[in-house]
Amino acid sequence: MSERWNTDDVAALAPDASSRKAAVKVARTASWPVLGRLAADPTEAADAPGGTVALWGACAGSGKKPYQTAVHLTGPSAPASKCSCPSRKFPCKHALALLHLWVEGRVEAAGDPPDWVADWLIRRDATTERRDAAPDAEAAARRTQRREERVAEGFAELELWLRDQAQAGLAGAPGRDYGHWDGMAARLVDAQAGRVADRVRELGSVCAKDEWPGRLLTEFALLRLLITAYRRRDDLPEPLRATVRARAGLVTAPDESAPVRDTWQVLGRRDFPAGQVRGRRIWLRGRATERVAMLVSFAPTGRTPETAARVGTEFEADLAFYPAERRASLVARHAEHRADPPPGGSLDDALKSWASAVAADPWLEEWPVVVRDAAVAHRDGWWLTDPSGAALPVHRAVAPSQPWRLAAVSGGAPLTVAAEWTPSGLRPLTAWTAEGRAVPM
């Protein structure tokens, strides 16, 4: 296993979801007749901190010549990559696959790197020395400004594209013609707006769902809102400005300078498909801070994503949050123990919580809520109810057996239920019986 790296770190580097999926497919040793790793000190173990300087390999592609790929893991702009493939994405799928192989411990230390790798490392070191001659803060500011300008250019093109879709009308929508959506997504990738590119690429699947015209118009409106907010970002209050930057994909790493320490209650877990990669998100809530956190992990198909916390427990930990997001990474973990059901509220409280979250992030798609004294009922569809008589619909996409299981767990008695609230309804995650037993849904 590589030092301080895991598959989540590699997935976070991918410019878009398709690159993540393609990298996992290519990350097979059979596809790499040449693999090597340059160790900082050959006498140290492979997993020693800072023990690996660079990776390289030759990956068999569709042509006669294999693609030459290298990744530099040290230096202020690391990781950096180089590949002879024609991809316009950075890093490309071959560089991501090479990192996957390294993370999984399948890249052995070698002697001196090939000449083409050595020359590239020398040029990078020389460039770094020249860059270091200028103040780091000024250089970083220039890089950030250049990327913001590229994203703005991509958003201007997206705005024209959205106008064309509206003028063509929904009757002319290409539906599941994924090439139509992928073309615009590829231009956003070129503009370094990979997160928005993922959202545009998913529009094709929206057209395959029930009530797709309304859903598609909603997605168009949210994209238009993001474009407008990004254009006016300097006039926005700081919290909303940070959210807009994050949604535009300008923030890619958690802020480890000020980790949040608390006793984190595990509210629930949900697995979700991501092409050839499986994802898992775990919802947490701090006892003292009442802050919501989400831990996300990924794994190739056939493997189980990492489970950082178990349902029915709580644990003391330091979490580093991604700027303006609920997503966090685990910095340090301390004691873990069995927990009582988390405090919940009414369904009205759940909606108020969702409203506050959407006010801070209009592009939010799911939010954890905890409902006390809840029951499940069937009234032309499944609903979650509370003693006040209020009811919220259960998401139609949940497994048909899940509401029945929720009813069976209750045995007619009220439950504490943690769920994800989405614009399409509730997804139950965990139910706690009257005796305090946690049952994952």
Distance between the termini: 33 Å
Percent of residues in helices comes to: 25-40%
Total strands: the figure is 15
Spatial arrangement of strands, main beta sheet: 12-11-10-13-14-15
- Written as H for each helix and E for each strand, in order along the chain, the element string is HHEEEEHHHHHHHHEEEEEHEEEHEEE
Q: Treating each run of at least 4 consecutive H or I residues as one helix, how many helices? A: 12
Largest sheet: 6 strands, antiparallel
How would you portray this structure in words?
Helix 2 (17-26) packs across helix 3 and helix 5 (136-168) runs antiparallel to helix 9 (212-231). A 6-stranded antiparallel β-sheet has the order 12-11-10-13-14-15. A 5-stranded antiparallel β-sheet has the order 7-6-5-8-9. Strands 1-2-3-4 form a 4-stranded antiparallel β-sheet, sandwiched between helices. It is built from 12 helices and 15 strands. It starts with 6 loop residues before the first helix and ends with a strand. It has helices at 7-13, 17-26, 93-103, 115-132, 136-168, 178-190, 194-201, 203-206, 212-231, 238-247, 347-360, 401-410; strands at 34-39, 52-59, 67-72, 80-83, 260-274, 277-286, 292-300, 313-321, 328-338, 367-378, 382-385, 391-393, 415-422, 425-432, 438-440. With 441 residues, it is of the alpha+beta class. 36% of the residues lie in helices and 26% in strands. It has 4 domains: 7-132, no CATH class; 137-247, no CATH class; 260-338; 347-440. It is globular, with a radius of gyration of 24 Å.
